[in-house]
Design brief:
The chain is an alpha/beta fold. It folds into two domains: 234 residues, P-loop containing nucleotide triphosphate hydrolases (Rossmann fold); 67 residues. The chain is built from twelve helices and twelve strands. The strands form two sheets. Strands 6-7-8-3-9-10-12-11 form an eight-stranded mixed sheet, sandwiched between helices. β1 and β2 form a beta hairpin. α4 packs across α5, α5 crosses α7 and α7 packs parallel to α8. The radius of gyration is 21 Å and the shape is globular.
Amino acid sequence: MSAILSIRKLVVNFETPRGLLSAVRDVSLEIEQGSSVGIVGESGSGKTVMSRAAMGLLSGSTVRREGTVMFDDKELTAMRADEVRDQFGTGMAMIFQDPMTALNPVRRIGSQLSEGPRVRLGMDKKAARARSIELLSLVRIPDPEAMLNKFPFQLSGGMRQRVMIAIALACKPKLLFADEPTTALDVTVQAQILQLLSDLRREMNMSMVLVTHDLGVVANHTDFVAVMYAGEIVEQAPTTELFSNMKMPYTEALLKSIPKIDSASGARMAVIEGRLPDPTDRPSGCGFAARCSYVQDKCRTEHPPLVDAGNGHLYRCWYPLGHTIGRK
C-alpha cells in the first residue's frame, strides 16, 4: 500500500521575543492510502502544529520550517503558497477544533457549504445546492433542506460539528485531518461524531489523521498511532500493537489518565505530574525525564533515539516498559 502523505525530518520553529521556540523536532511519519492514523499528546506536545505544517497552513515571517512533506507524490514543501492552496478541498481538508469559531457566524449554512463545490469543482449555484443537501444527508442531519437556511448559532454543538465535517468532505478529499473533532461535546455526541468519521472514511476510501489528547479516542477508530511529546514522536505503532505492548512511559501515563467507568465514586483521577518542558529551552536528556516515574540518571543527560521494536513499533526511551535492568 502506498503512502498518501509522507513526512520526513519535519522541524518547525517560531521566532519569539524569548528566543527560538521549538514546536516540532525531527518528525517523520507516513500515512497509508485509506488508513486512519491517530496523533496523540497533551496540549503543547506539537501535534496540531505538526498537522498544520504538513498541510502548509503555517506562514509568516516568524515561522521556520525544515524537512520534506510529500502528498500524493507531490512535494508540498517545494511549492508556492498558492500551489499548496490548490491542494485544499480536493486533496486535503481539515476539521478544526471549535466549530462555533470555525463557522462564519453571519453566513447561512447553505452558503458556507456550497462555497467549496462552486470554487473548487466549478459547480453552478443549482448543482452546489444539490451537493450541499447531499452532504448534509451524508453526515446524518435530518431535514437537510431546512438546515441550509439556518445560521450556526441556531445549531447545537453536535450539529455544528456535523456541518464542519460536511464542509470538509464537500470536494471529496483524499486525506482528512480531524483536529480534536469532539472538543466541547458531551460523551454521547463524541461517540456519534467519531463513529460517523470512521464510517465516512471507509465509505469514501479516504485517509484520515485524527489529532487528539485522548488515547481512548484512537483505540477504536485508527489503524496506527503516533504519540507526541515536547515536539517529538516518542512512540508509534499499529494501534493493536501499541495497546498490547506499549514501551514509552509517557504513553502509559496518558492511558492511565483516562477516566474509568468502574472507578469508585469520589476516587482521585490519575494525572501526569509536572508540565511540558519550556519549548525555548529544551533539556539535553529525555524531554519526559522530569515527569517520569522510571527516570534514571542517563535519562536526564542523554537524549534517547527512536528504537525499532519490530512490526512498525518505534519508541524513544532508554528504559522502556518491561525493561527491568537499572530500574529503581
